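A reminder from the course coordinator: this example appears on the midterm review sheet, so study it carefully.

Given structure:
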């Protein structure tokens, strides 16, 4: 474990440097011990692009804001937050060993989840065994929810909800044929299975489906094959690097279906930066933008100012919601983890995405959604009851 310890020290040095830049009034002396919060995050490897957009910047921003306000309120007493973090290098084995150390020998007060469905699938049962509330903002796994781990709470809309919303939108707009590519891991397999279930009873034909491995470098052969089939809609159940790869290679071969959906990563600012004007009309997984509430706008502005980059329009806000819920629960019942679990499971919370409550560990307040780039903003376009803009019903041709 020598390397994780080295990484921890480096991370804490960065955190201390960031804290020093905050107003002095935010760091009044206190005799209370800090609240120690542990986590791993992918800073290298395949998961790093998502982790360093959707999760870790939010953890750091939240800790800065809490400490600038004097600390986390624990039964009426302010206590500073100390983040104890490690680079899991996108390796599940490394993450498991590290969380065992954090919860077992280090006995941190609280933990925060790692990034991605596969990581969460490995760590959530471990957190449940040690009795740590686990508010997961990037876990898309109905299987994980169905395990009914008492300490696990899923913040994202799950595959059945997300794929159900997508299929409902396509059906409402007379799409008749679709072609799909999907990542050959838990995330891709579960979402593709949910997509197939959602298609039942709909007059939509799945004319092609292909899986691909993690770290793929070329999707052009399968895209060329799909182009020849001329589907009404293309659906990529993809990770951020593959989302950009599929989009750029579709442009290169002039594959331009009426509906082009790819995710995760479409809702990232990086997608707009890399794809440029060609992002217009592209669909993907997303659930919010700064328009949804004044609180969401304040969060967006703070993230952009303090982290020097915009949050993404999907899991970033869910990460923040998880931190809001944890903070409200700690303020109410303190750091007793069993009491925290009971409070989170049985109460409704005010968040930047509105009121959130859990039913059997699942976020029961936010429906499945579809987003679309329009005029430089990732708009929520489905369902209409939650939309921030109307659906653009035909993607412009690649430029």
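Designed residues:
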């Amino acid at each position: 474990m020598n390397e994780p310890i080295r990484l921890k020290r480096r991370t804490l040095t960065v955190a201390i440097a960031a804290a020093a830049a905050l107003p002095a009034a935010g760091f009044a002396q206190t005799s209370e011990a800090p609240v120690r919060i542990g986590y791993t995050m992918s800073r290298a490897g395949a998961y790093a692009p998502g982790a360093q957009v959707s999760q870790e910047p939010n953890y750091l921003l939240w800790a800065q804001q809490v400490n600038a306000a004097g600390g986390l309120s624990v039964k009426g007493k302010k206590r500073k937050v100390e983040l104890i973090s490690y680079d899991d290098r996108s390796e599940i084995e490394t993450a498991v060993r590290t969380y065992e150390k954090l919860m077992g020998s280090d006995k941190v007060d609280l933990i925060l989840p790692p990034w991605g469905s596969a990581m969460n699938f490995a760590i959530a049962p471990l957190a449940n065994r040690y009795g740590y509330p686990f508010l997961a903002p990037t876990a898309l796994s109905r299987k994980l929810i169905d395990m009914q781990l008492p300490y696990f709470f899923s913040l994202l809309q799950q595959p059945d909800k997300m794929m159900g919303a997508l299929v409902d939108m396509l059906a409402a707009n007379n799409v008749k044929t679709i072609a799909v590519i999907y990542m050959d891991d838990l995330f891709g397999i579960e979402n593709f299975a949910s997509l197939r279930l959602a298609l039942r009873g709909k007059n939509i034909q799945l004319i092609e489906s292909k899986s691909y491995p993690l770290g793929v470098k070329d999707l052009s052969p399968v895209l060329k094959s799909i182009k020849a089939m001329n589907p009404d809609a293309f659906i990529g159940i993809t990770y951020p690097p593959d989302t950009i790869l599929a989009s750029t290679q579709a442009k290169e071969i002039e594959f331009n279906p009426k509906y082009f959906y790819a995710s995760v990563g479409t809702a990232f600012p990086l997608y707009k930066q890399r794809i440029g004007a060609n992002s217009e009309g592209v669909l993907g997984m997303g659930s919010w933008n700064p328009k949804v509430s004044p609180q969401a706008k304040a969060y967006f502005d703070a993230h952009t100012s303090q982290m020097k980059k915009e949050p993404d329009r999907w899991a970033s806000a869910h990460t923040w919601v998880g931190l809001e819920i944890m903070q409200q629960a700690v303020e109410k019942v303190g750091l007793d983890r069993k009491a925290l679990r009971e409070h989170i499971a049985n109460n409704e919370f005010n968040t930047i995405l509105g009121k959130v409550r859990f039913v059997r560990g699942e976020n029961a307040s936010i429906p499945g959604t579809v987003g679309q780039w329009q005029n430089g903003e990732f708009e929520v376009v489905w369902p209409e009851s939650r939309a921030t803009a109307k659906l653009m019903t035909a993607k412009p041709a690649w430029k």
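DSSP finds 14 helices and 18 strands in the chain. Residues 2-20 form the longest helix (19 residues).
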